[in-house]
Design a protein that fits this description.
Helix content: 25-40%
CATH topology of the largest domain: conserved putative lor/sdh protein from methanococcus maripaludis s2 fold
Strand order of the largest sheet: 5-6-10-8-7-11
Radius of gyration: 47 Å
Shape: elongated
Largest sheet: 6 strands, antiparallel, barrel
Number of strands: 16
Distance between the termini: 93 Å
Structural class: alpha+beta
CATH architecture of the largest domain: Beta Barrel
Strand content: 25-35%
Order of helices and strands: HEEHEHEEHHEEEEEEEEEEEH
Number of domains: 4
């Protein structure tokens, strides 16, 4: 049975408009289904409203069910798919219209005369690609050094800089700092008292040794005097150790030449950090133009916060121009073990507009410049790592860039 031919003839009846009632039946008078007819809607005179050619392909009885199911599937598929091809509603006018848009890559170019370029003393430098050690910014806290010095009013440290527990204490309030200062004063007094007592025990020892040499004393007296000296030395060491636990003098913190920075770091990041390399200390905000100060890592009593899952790293930073205060929160940039590659330009080539955007002026040709937007990643030792519309080898203005900016916007006219 050729169902393809039969389907073609069935499709010819699509113009009947009564596809939902379409069915197949054997021809009248034929019991074995040698043909089929279309029971379409009849005309007014009881005949077919349309002329349908009689099919010449016999239809076996056992094939009628399959053909009916095939036609049913075809009709249902057509009813499902047809709405998808319906005409889309007409779109209205757009809510906004931008006339004559200007792209940043098509900003105005500046063309100077040779005399103007010479007067502005514009110099350029080539854009380079360098490798930098990756960095992470953490929050830190300025604290007093955990080692006592041998200067000032602090106790003489015979251990060459013993460490205190002050570095592992939390941030102290003003009242707690006052109590700590009082405890330090009391400890200093105990150290001075122990020192005076030690000096007092040395006098009987000297007298007992002189009498023994003159055959006027006994060895027992000398031994007793030596015992008192030993007890005095032990008392002095104990007083000094107690004083060391209280850290550097709080009352002298305004004159500190250096401070320590405690940096809590998540334990999962420790393996990535290069904790033996110097860090940079600056403001908490990650602005690329912030001035940072190098800080050297120092060893300190181990401390951690089990609840927060952090361990503490310690760095020593110079208190240049009294820039830091006890308890001040700072940003600490710690280098990573991994390196990353980036375009670099001198920091003097970068300009900031009124909205905080960063730009450089690229030299396109002699006396011809164009402003390019860049994103500054970070600044290290006067070199800015940037990303944006620059290529390696492009020349950017490193002096006179501000004058070019003023010339472009009319300020320099």
């Amino acid at each position: 049975m050729k169902f393809a031919e039969l389907a073609g003839q069935i499709a010819a009846h699509d113009s009947c408009g009564d596809r939902l009632r379409f069915s197949l039946s054997p021809q009248r008078g034929e019991d074995r289904g040698e043909g089929w007819e279309c029971p379409c809607a009849l005309g007014a005179n009881g005949t077919h409203g349309h002329h349908h050619p009689s099919p010449s392909i016999p239809l076996p009885v056992e094939g009628r069910g399959k053909l009916a199911a095939t036609c049913t599937h075809f009709i249902l598929s057509f009813l499902i798919v047809a709405p998808l091809f319906a005409a889309e509603p007409a779109k209205g006018p757009p809510p906004a219209k931008v006339e004559k848009p200007v792209k940043e890559s098509e900003l105005a170019n500046l063309t100077l005369t040779p005399e103007a370029e010479k007067r502005l003393a514009i110099t350029t430098a080539a854009v380079e690609r360098r490798k930098f050690a990756g960095t992470r910014l953490f929050g830190g806290e300025i604290i007093l050094p955990a080692r006592n010095s041998t200067n000032g009013n602090s106790a003489v440290n015979t251990n060459g800089g013993a460490q205190s527990i002050f570095s592992i204490l939390p941030s102290l309030s003003s009242a707690e700092l006052v109590r700590l200062a009082q405890a330090q004063i009391d400890a200093d007094g105990q150290v001075d008292l122990a020192r005076v007592q030690l000096e007092g025990t040395k006098v009987p020892l000297t007298r007992a040794e002189r009498l023994l040499n003159d055959k006027a004393g006994s060895e027992r007296a000398v031994d007793d005097a030596k015992l008192q000296v030993a007890l005095g030395e032990t008392a002095l060491r104990t007083a000094q150790a107690r004083r060391d636990l209280l850290g550097a003098p709080v009352l002298d913190f305004a004159n500190q030449k250096s401070f320590w920075v405690r940096v809590p770091v998540y334990v999962g990041d420790i393996a990535r950090l290069n904790t033996t390399a110097p860090a940079r200390v600056g403001p908490l905000s990650p602005n690329a133009g912030n001035v940072t100060i190098p800080a050297q890592p120092v060893s300190a009593p181990p401390s951690a916060n089990a609840g927060a899952g952090t361990v503490d790293l310690f760095y020593e930073v110079a208190n240049t121009n009294n820039a830091f205060r006890i308890g001040q929160r700072v940003g600490v940039t710690i280098p990573l073990h991994e390196e990353e590659e980036s375009l670099v330009v001198p920091w003097s080539a970068v300009l900031h507009d009124i909205n905080g955007g960063t730009w450089v002026y690229e030299k396109l040709a002699p006396q011809r410049y164009a402003r390019r937007r860049v994103q500054v990643k970070r600044v290290i030792d006067g070199i800015a790592a940037v990303a944006g519309g620059l290529n390696v080898g492009a020349n950017v203005a490193i002096t006179g860039a501000a004058e070019l900016f003023g010339t472009e916007f009319g300020v320099g006219k």
